[in-house]
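Lab notebook page, bench 4
Experiment: in silico fold of construct C2
Operator: M.H.
Input chain length: 308 residues
Purpose: comparison with the prior construct
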Amino acid sequence: MKVQIMLRILFRLLRTRRASAAELARETEVSERSIHRYVEELIVAGVPIDIIRGRRGGICLPDTYRLPSNFFTKEEYAAAVNALLALYEQLPDAAVKGALEKLTRQQKADARDLTLSGYILVDSSTWGDAAGTSETLKFLEDAAERRACIEISYVDREGATSRRVVEPHLLIYKQNIWYLYAWCRKRENFRLFRVGRIRGARDTGERFERRAFSRADLPLKFRFEDKELVNLRLAVDKAALPDVEEWLGMGNVRAEEGGIFAEAEVPGGEVLLSKLLALGSGVRVLAPASVAAALAERAAAVCRLYAN
């Protein structure tokens, strides 16, 4: 029963992106207190739900969130689409048609993990993130093209979360990091936002007029070898949290019982060891054991270098 209610809440938010606790309570026939408890469990499970106070607030799911690409197998997708097609033939209902269109769009979107243009291929995801960053980039690109004002939930390096309405003008890829160049209405100026620090974004329904800027206005004055990928798991100290979030992406860092942990598939070898050494005592390698041993050996060598 509990799982069924949580799924009903999730699918309702996927459909409308916003609902009040009272609405969800009526639809699921449980108390508002239970709704908040189920929402908290969904958040712990990794669903980026926001609870916004005020007249226009509610329980919200960012427009950038989609179901994981492995939520359905290809066979399950095909079966669901065929079932909806058969139902629509018997009952040409608008709701059935809408569900069919959404499921078909999701199926097509799940197949686009990489962007291929001519002889250029861009994998827009962060390490270990097959869908989250790509979905956010697609949403931001679409918003810039449509001149759509968006509200973003942004987490700075100190961990402070702020909400702000921005006018997205340009996506920038610099030194393996994606940025959004946007006019920030809170600061009344252009700002450069790290896409990896945007926790959620939604379309406000408002459109904007593009503002003039040149390449010289962009604040862009700021090597990667082929290596075998390893499944890295780290215990993260709070002091190193901002750096780990920007390196691996916020979606791969989670507070669990016993501390903060990060997991991602990353390139091994010297590049990885150098990165971990730069983080110092802020992280501890839990897996793989081979990386932990190599790091310990490298750290011992550094200690010997300065022993005298």
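Observations: The two ends are 66 Å apart (CA to CA). The first helix runs from residue 2 to 16.
Next step: discuss at group meeting.
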